[in-house]
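Session log. Operator J.P. requested a structure for one protein chain; no other inputs attached. Running the standard single-chain path with token output.
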Amino acid sequence: MFKFSINKKHYYNLSDKEILALAISSEEEDARIYQYYASLFIKDFPETASMFQEMSDEENVHRRQLIDLFKNKFGNNIPLIKREHVQGFYTRRPIWLIENLTLDKVRQEIVKMEKDAANFYFKTAQKTADPDIRKLLGDLAEIESKHSDKALLKASIIEKSSLAIDELKKAKKQFILTWVQPGLAGLMDGSVSTLAPIFATAFATKDSHTTLLVGLAASIGAGISMGFTEAAHDDGIISGRGSPIKRGVASGVMTTLGGLGHALPYLISDFYTATIIAMFFVLIELWAIAWIQKKYMEIKFSRAIFQVVFGGALVLAAGIFIGGF
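Structure written below.
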């Protein structure tokens, strides 16, 4: 790899022939990237996919213009020069390899792609002495500089259309089904169900260390159980709830965190101090549950607070009562 890096030629030192060859391969790659984005979103976001297809078509137009100029200047044999062959040249981040790529992430990448291309064409146009090459590169620099703004403007127009509203609702619904619902169920289970064993142990033993061990065991055990249950009971194919692994991770992690919130305060050796802090964390956990219900499940905050506080209070009282015997 070191030898390969040393043998690279800096793009400032490229000849006109090499600049055109590099520009051709870059336009080909960008066209394929936009084509991939179009195919990625065609099923769930057809109008947005259409925008990506148009961008791919524009990149192909640029590629043909560059090829025509190359053939006119240097003949038919175009050397294969890619971005990774040139030192100091911009590279494309392989975000298209990310599973479940979001529209927002793609739009951010579009802005970077077009700015990189515009900067390349502008800088190389300044160094070439050939008027035809300079003119084409300058024109492409201007086009690419406006391309990202054009794409984002069109995206904003699409977002206001009825079809796009349906697309965004579908994306939000999928996010809720895959991440929010399993995570919320886990947080509720971890926060509420572990109250009884943790506080029963606390008031029965009055010992922080023992309570901590019980809390860790209850939280981690519940997290593993909830994670496997969520992943195993529904593969997501029929229900459309998404990847069982993702749902299992969301449920398991949030269940564990929900229990650890009021278990970790018992790291404090003083029992009463630890218990007061643990109860404070219980209130934070219940508030977080109510906030998530309001934000994502569209449940009134007052109703959500009543539900979680009432349920949590019952479980907490049961734990304290049992621990008092």
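Operator note: The chain has eleven helices and two strands.
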